[in-house]
Write a structure and sequence with these properties.
Layout lengths: L2 H18 L1 H5 L3 H9 L5 H18 L4 H23 L9 H20 L8
Membrane topology: Multi-pass membrane protein
InterPro entries: DoxX
Pfam family, one: DoxX
Length: 125
């Protein structure tokens, strides 16, 4: 399989992960509210981060902006991982660590995608 095809699949996977979580953030799902209350960012942080995740997901799907979407997603997931490790814990409300491990996987995929596409950026080439 060609490298470009692999990274297309990775980009779609990252975008799907980012975008599918938006329904929880934008509908004020109790688990999402709990998370953002725990870290002191409810409601503006929940909604703001949701908007940023939507932007990152869209940027990842547009060929000229892949590097921006990957960099933004990497930063967002680094923040999520930091919050899990400092305030939330790995297991949030009995989820077995699913949110944490999804954030770690998304971080790694986003970082790999950014590294691959960084030369398309005017700042990191």
């Amino acid at each position: 399989m060609k490298t470009k095809t692999i990274f297309l699949i990775l980009r779609i996977a990252i975008a799907v992960i980012l975008i599918q979580t938006l329904r929880f953030k934008f509908t004020a799902h109790p688990d999402s509210v709990y998370i953002f209350e725990t870290v002191g960012l409810e409601p503006y942080g929940r909604l703001g981060i949701g908007v940023l995740e939507l932007i990152a997901g869209i940027l990842l799907l547009i060929p000229r902006t892949i590097w921006m979407g990957a960099l933004l997603a990497t930063g967002l997931m680094a923040g999520a991982i930091f919050m899990h490790l400092t305030q939330l814990g790995i297991d949030v409300k009995g989820d077995g660590g699913v949110l944490f491990y999804t954030a770690v996987a998304t971080f790694l995929l986003s970082l790999a995608t950014f590294i691959y596409y960084r030369k398309e950026s005017p700042f990191f080439s």
